[in-house]
Structures are given as C-alpha cells and as structure tokens.
Design a protein that fits this description.
Beta Polymerase, domain 2; 8 helices; 7 strands; 21% strand; globular
C-alpha cells in the first residue's frame, strides 16, 4: 500500500488532485484492529475546471498514462484497488480539510480523523457501517465531545440516538 500512497502524493503534488485523505475501512484501520476490506477509499478534492464542473476524468487519464488500469469502480495502483471518491457533501469536505497526517511504513499520508470516520459511518448507515461503528467506538480513541459536535453540525443526532 505504501507504493500506492506514494502515487497519491505525486498526484497531489502535480495538482491532479487538490487534496486527498484515506477514509472508509482502511482509514478506520489506522485507529483500530485490522479487518477485511476490498479497496482503499481515497476521498479527493478536485481542482475546479474553467466551467466550474468537477470531473474525475483528468485523474483517470493521468493514472492511465502512468500505466494503471481501471477495474470496475477502482483503479489498480501498485496492486491495490483504489476507489476515488469526490467530496460529496459537507461532512466529507470537512473531513478532508481536517484530515490528519499519518505515517504508513515510512510514507506520509492523510487519514480522516476518527471522529469524522465515525460520523461518516453513521451517515452512510449501511449494515456493515453500523457494525464497524460499534467496533470502532470501542477500539478507537475518539474524542466524544468532538464527535457530538460533528454529529450535531451535520444533523445526524437522530441517527446517533437511534444507533445508540
């Protein structure tokens, strides 16, 4: 995975993506015991185009020019299935802005803070996310006041109360 992270850092440095952070199940692994997951979820802020629309096309073209192939919704980067997800709502945008630097086998990357990961799991609401959230709340070091603030600001308090 460190080789894939190096490629992500190169893409950001080249301006192909404005910012990235690891989220999803792999992001959670930075804070808890590992579990099986299929892909690396990379959330991205994309550079604006002249028309104001955001497009993943320049990113995929750059990856293709480097010899990386698309496989379904992922791109295989150095043997890792990477799914690029544009920041799709205010919670994910905030998580990207406030992502923490982390070291992965000597390579610097960015990972969503545990409070944002928990809030996104809650917002997504799939069965697997609810199960991961239960384990995450036990294993990860979460600042509960910060989590409550994020949940309240992003109008997730009803879901939180139902989940608890």
């Amino acid at each position: 995975m460190e080789r894939a992270i190096r490629v992500l850092n190169e893409l950001e440095k080249a301006g192909v993506i404005a910012r990235y952070a690891i989220g999803g199940a792999v992001g959670a692994i930075f804070y808890m015991e590992p579990f099986l997951t299929y892909d690396l979820d990379v959330f991205v802020l994309l550079p604006s185009t002249s028309g104001g629309l955001l497009s993943l096309t320049p990113l995929y073209q750059e990856l293709q020019s480097r010899g990386y192939a698309s496989e379904a919704e992922c791109v295989n980067i150095e043997g890792i299935a990477v799914q690029f997800l544009p920041a799709y709502n205010a919670l994910v945008e905030e998580a990207l802005r406030e992502a923490r630097e982390a070291d992965y086998h000597g390579v610097t990357t960015r990972v969503f803070a545990p409070e944002h990961l928990a809030a996104i799991m809650l917002q997504t609401g799939r069965d697997k996310d609810r199960q991961r959230l239960a384990a995450f709340m036990v294993e990860a070091r979460i600042e509960e006041e910060r989590l409550r603030d994020i949940i309240a600001r992003h109008r997730l308090m009803d879901r939180w109360n139902q989940w608890k």
